[in-house]
Amino acid sequence: MAEKRIILTGDRPTGRLHIGHYVGSLRNRVAIQNAGGFERMFVFIADAQALTDNFDNPEKVRQNIIEVALDYLSVGLDPSKVTLFIQSQIPELTELAFYYMNLVTVARLQRNPTVKTEIAMRGFGADGEEAAFGSGLPVGFFTYPISQAADITAFKATEVPVGEDQKPMIEQTVEIVRAFNRIYGETLVEPKVVLPSNAACLRLPGTDGKAKMSKSLGNCIYLSDTAEQMHKSVMSMYTDPLHINVSDPGHVEGNTVFTYLDAFCRPEHFGRYWPDYADLDELKAHYTRGGLGDVKVKKFLEKILNEELDPIRARRKEFEKDIPAVYEMLKKGSEAAREAAAATLDDVKRSMKINYFEDKALMEEQARRFSE
């Protein structure tokens, strides 16, 4: 339906962003920003969604707004090229979500894989279907996919760059868009999900080898970590438990160090840091046949990560010098975002025929009817 290319993506401010966020979406966002070719690009901090499972700790969300904003700016997102905004400052999103609630069944929300996983992770009930959707689950959290649909459609987004775990959410947004357009007429834009092309970036594991990098598990490498903090994380990283001696054959599958190398390593890194090997395949082959120690591989990874993160650390230090200026960027972005969302809300209300005060034809028709 839409010919304009509009990008929208964001993150919940539940903590500092880590390298899983970086390879899963942040790096891709910066690449899209720098490539250009879009009408507009919106990147937001989803504080209202974060409050659905942090409703009793608003100060945590409040403090993390600036952390996420600094991470955005430090990776290279540019407020002169993209619109950075805070979700809660756009009240039109709440109204849109309210209207969309009539287009989704409870059963459909219960089947959403992302919702089910997040519910279990946050302890709202992980002992089966009945417990998971029991009385301990806040309605706001349960309707998270509907809120996300409001975020996406409010800005008529055509593309949504996200991590793999968010794919079911975008699929549900598409369902809502199709339902709305079928019932009320062509109004909303159907978005496409944009995933990282590198398979290793789809879901970077934690440093302990667990499937998800998580603050609660203490297995993250944060974008704001110092080189010293990152050194400790890399050196303690999970590898191959069967690779006890250097001479032992090693396994790269399920080996966190090699998963990270798949996500970050480029051919030129070997020329700079380990010229003994031509590329990653050659390094993997040596490790697999034995004769290569884990520490050497970890040191190589550490150099690569420092090369990637050093410019990010430096930019963050500069932005940290003027925090009021960062908030001013977010304020201006929020004002621009609200203007765009308000235009979409007007379209929605017009299609739903609840634009009573601007519908002069309705008033004239009713005036004639009651005057007869």
What's the layout of helices and strands?
Layout: E1 6-11, H1 19-35, E2 40-45, H2 47-50, H3 58-75, E3 83-86, H4 92-100, H5 106-111, H6 113-121, H7 129-132, H8 139-142, H9 144-154, E4 159-161, H10 167-184, E5 192-194, H11 227-235, H12 256-264, H13 267-273, H14 280-289, H15 294-320, H16 323-351, H17 360-371
Parallel strand pairs: 1-2, 2-3, 4-5
Helix pairs in contact: 3-15, 4-9, 4-16, 9-10, 11-15, 12-15
Structure commentary:
- By secondary structure, the chain is mainly alpha-helical.
- The protein folds into 2 domains: 6-203 and 323-363, HUPs (Rossmann fold, 3-Layer(aba) Sandwich), CATH 3.40.50.620; 227-318, Orthogonal Bundle (Tyrosyl-Transfer RNA Synthetase).
- It is 55% helix and 6% strand.
- It has helices at 19-35, 47-50, 58-75, 92-100, 106-111, 113-121, 129-132, 139-142, 144-154, 167-184, 227-235, 256-264, 267-273, 280-289, 294-320, 323-351, 360-371, and strands spanning 6-11, 40-45, 83-86, 159-161, 192-194.
- The strands form 2 sheets. Strands 1-2-3 form a 3-stranded parallel β-sheet. A two-stranded parallel ribbon has the order 4-5.
- The longest helix is centred in the last third of the chain and has 29 residues, at 323-351.
- The model is unreliable at 126-134 (pLDDT under 50).
